[in-house]
Each structure stands twice: as C-alpha cells, then as structure tokens.
Amino acid sequence: MEDLHPTVIAFKEFINKHPLLLREIRKSGRSWQESYEQWILLGEDDPHWDQYKDEIKDDKVDKSTVKDSELVGQLLKYTSNLDINKVQGQVDQLSKAITSIQEMMQQFKGTQKKEQSPKDPFGWMRD
Predict the structure, then answer these.
(1) pTM here?
(2) Greater confidence, 99 or 70?
(3) Are 33 and 54 within one domain?
C-alpha cells in the first residue's frame, strides 16, 4: 500500500471522529476532495464541524446502523456487477437439480411400497 501524506492520514482520523460527516458525504454524493479542502481551510477545531461530531446524541442512531447502511451499499455495488443472464442460468440449473432429486425420492418411495408384503401391510412380521 502506498504511503499516504500526513495530512491525508490526519483527515481520515478526523472523519472517524465525525461519523455524521462521513454519512453525509456518502449520502449526498459530495466528493471527498471537497470535504478535504474545506477541512484544510477551516481547520479541525472550527465550530462548523461540531454539528458532525456525535452521531448518537444528534441523530439517535447507533454505530450498527451505520455499518448496516455500509453493508447495503457494498451489496448494491456487488449486485451492479452481476450478469443477470448468468444468474438466471444458475437458478434454472438449481431448479432442475431439485426437480430430479424430488423425482428420485418419489421413485424410491414407490419401490418401498411395492416391497412391502400384502399379507403383512404394517411390516410387523419381519425378521
């Protein structure tokens, strides 16, 4: 991994301390560059950043909700790369395999019934 500039590392730490800012950037589609430049100009201690500090007090949202939204974002990213035709083909193959297994089970049940003696319908007289 490339060595990051110290200001970029400091900005990452700043973002981790301001979870609402992180969520706003992701939600709004603003560029990271824009937020980074604003951080450079205003500085870390500017009152502008106070509104983004404490996610739990301000929004009553816990960190698991943020992680869940990140997971949904990742899932959407992965599904956008899926080839629907390939997925449909795999689903069709799976469906055929399940149908074959069901048919084999029906045949197996049919042979078991035929093997049972008509004189002993409950199978009580077996050795």
Answers:
(1) 0.40
(2) 99
(3) yes
